[in-house]
Model the fold of this input.
Amino acid sequence: MGARPDPLNKLQNKLQTEAALHAPAAPSPIASRFVRACLRLPTDRTPVWFLRQAGRYMPEYMAVRKHHSLLDICRTPDIAAEVTITAAERLGVDAAIIFADLLLPLTPMGLDFEFVADEGPRVHAPIRSAAQARALRTDRIDDLRYVARAIEKVAAHFSPPRSNGDRLGIIGFCGAPFTLASYMIEGGSSRNYIETKKMMYGDKKAWPILMEKLVAVLADYAAQQVEAGADVIQVFDSWVGALSPIDYRQYALAPTTDLIRRIRALGVPVIYFGVDTASLLPAMQETGADVLGLDWRTPLDRAWSTLDHAVAVQGNLDPITLFAPEEILHARVAEVLAQAAARPGHIFNLGHGIVPNTPVEAVLAVVRQIKSTAR
Ligand code: CP3
Done:
């Protein structure tokens, strides 16, 4: 990897030199095995956390959800922090992802939406024209401060290192321009992204305006989260696998690179995550992300070698394996670890989020297995 002259790479180079000398003079400034793995530094064991670890599969979450809507939880820092902390502690994982939602920035941009039971998000007036894209606001990001407030609370809770000396990593997140645009244009979840691609291909004005506004908003939002104590930012491009490599390069790569560059300039590593991305990985690597999220459709070793092992990787167990008999689950987890081969820079995770009805016991069994596998 070429040495990029930014503060994060300087820190990374210094720590890699230090690790090579086997003799850190003082305790490492990065006491979190999760953050160390993001920077491809050696760790005592593989760090682990789960996409959507605070979700409907977990009885503790459902107990809170009984009294509050999803958006109420997101917008109330005390509750969002509590849900974040409870999930991380219940599972005993190495990182806590702040409880929030990808779509929260739509509100200060001027787009109303709601979560409809059994359907998902619904945007009331989807963006279909350059005029609508132009009318989107980028000056009200302060309205999202409730997420930073929640991160401050989580960071205060986890600031003392645990008894084993490790500090839990705190993950802030935002959507990537393509995936967020798809919700703004389709008005909700989509199968074929027809309206999104119609705008992308056909409206030479609207698409660039939308991308530019999203990057501005998301960079500010990520900065608030870093300032509040997020150690790492994950950029969710969940639906980017709908694009062919040529379309990814033509319509999504530049704005995503711009966003990731701006977040890394804040001094934190970036995890860039997408699903169904096997053919996009080399282009996704060009964004400069420190870590790429891998889905389960490509074996981890094959995906990592297509990236020349020049970035860290996160993944990649099929989330539905958590419904399999114990011995199958155990074998699949062992397989992911074997493919990572104890190389620095692997963070164990699922290839996508934990789904409702997943047995909590299966998730706990995976954590136990990771913790008992020495490097
Ligand atoms: O521990 C965690 O990861 C929880 C925090 C979190 C939520 N949303 C809370 C949530 C995170 C990281 C997200 C990100 C998010 N939101 C993504 C990207 C992640 C991914 O899965 O790829 C996306 C695409 C969204 C948009 C979104 N939010 C949809 C499409 C839905 C409905 C789908 C469904 O499962 O019902 C949501 C709702 C949502 N956001 C839930 C949670 C826990 C479940 C609904 C609920 O509690 O009512």
